Amino acid sequence: MNVKRYLALARLGMIEKLHYRLGTFVTLFGNLVYLVLIYFLWKSIYASSGTDVVNGMTLNDTLVYLVLATALFNFLEVFLVWEMSREIQSGAIVLRLLKPMNFRRYYFWSLVGENIMSFFLTFLPTFVIVNFLTHGSISVGLNLFFFAASVVMALYINFSIDMIVATICLYTESTWGINMVKECIVLLLSGASIPLAFFPEKLRTIVQYLPFRCIYDTPLSILLQKPGYTIQSGLAHMLLLQLAWCLILYLAGSAFWSVSLKKITVNGG
Predict the structure, then answer these.
(1) Residue 93: per-residue pLDDT
(2) Is 144 helix (H, G, I), strand (E, B) or coil?
């Protein structure tokens, strides 16, 4: 693999993200409105519960989790399905396939640049502000190293799921409905919309082993754990589960893409 070639793609992705700054600011404004709604919703939930702690989480814990989950969503989301669907419908995907580089790697590294800029524009400022407002409630230490490793794997898992759904475009030529279902499933079962601690016990047990949890809940669980959370207390299990899903989704996605590519039909172009 020519590393310089893919790093150049990442750099182009960063430049493109900076070029569309207005879109980033509009997204941030929309998320601010969403977070205000979340604040009043969960404040009402805790007020009606009659207790300060629900399922082991205080109101402050829940709000910090959901704010960071929203920022992490903006950082990790790749919107690959929409882009590939448009290219299949227009016929532009043929030009992508003719490029002298692996198609999946091409898309991944192109999107990595955008994700890097999203990290600095959305997640990092949100993390700093939340930690400041909560008077340093988020511990800063070795957990940041494991969090970084977890986020890299979460990014690849999210990309792999999107790539599998995007590959369906080769059969349907339109994936609006399928993608909307995928988005709802990922946001719900990953803990991005509701912390997994609030799930029924049986459902939570199942969700803990699915790849969706590895996208948002696992990185946030590592980041928000109190000092003393060690390899022996579950950290290794979460990281290994992420790594396993990276390998499973890579193999499944590659096989599905290879088979589907033989059936490609495009319009336009």
Answers:
(1) 79
(2) helix
Compute the Cα dihedral for 33, 133, 20, 8 and give only its sign.
negative
Q: How many helices (H) and strands (E) does the chain have?
A: 13, 2
Supply the pLDDT for residue 210.
93
**Model confidence pLDDT, tens digit, residues 101-133:** 788 888 888 888 888 888 888 888 888 888 888
Cβ partners under 8 Å of residue 104, min gap 6? 163, 253, 254, 257
Distance from C-alpha of 72 to C-alpha of 126, rounded to nearest angstrom: 9
The DSSP bridge partners found for residue 58 are 53
* High-pLDDT (> 70) share of the chain, %: 90
Q: Give me the pLDDT at residue 89, please.
A: 74
Half-sphere exposure of 191 (CA within 13 A, CB side): 32
How does the average pLDDT of the chain come out, rounded?
83
State how far the Cα of 14 lies from the Cα of 235, in Å rounded to an integer.
32
Average pLDDT on 231-254 reads 88
Our CA dihedral for 88, 97, 249, 74, rounded to 10 degrees, sits at -60
**175 neighbors 168 (Cβ within 8 angstroms):** yes
Q: Which long-range contacts (CB under 8 A, 24 or more apart) does 26-35 make?
A: 27/74, 27/122, 28/74, 28/121, 28/122, 31/70, 31/71, 31/74, 34/70, 35/66, 35/67, 35/70
Give the side-chain half-sphere CA count within 13 A for 196.
24
Place of tokens 């030529």: 173
Could you report the per-residue pLDDT of 20-67, keeping only the tens digit for each? 666 667 777 777 788 888 888 888 888 888 888 888 888 888 889 998
C-alpha to C-alpha distances, 168 to 59, 76, 247, nearest whole angstrom = 41, 21, 20
Residue owning tokens 């999946």: 104
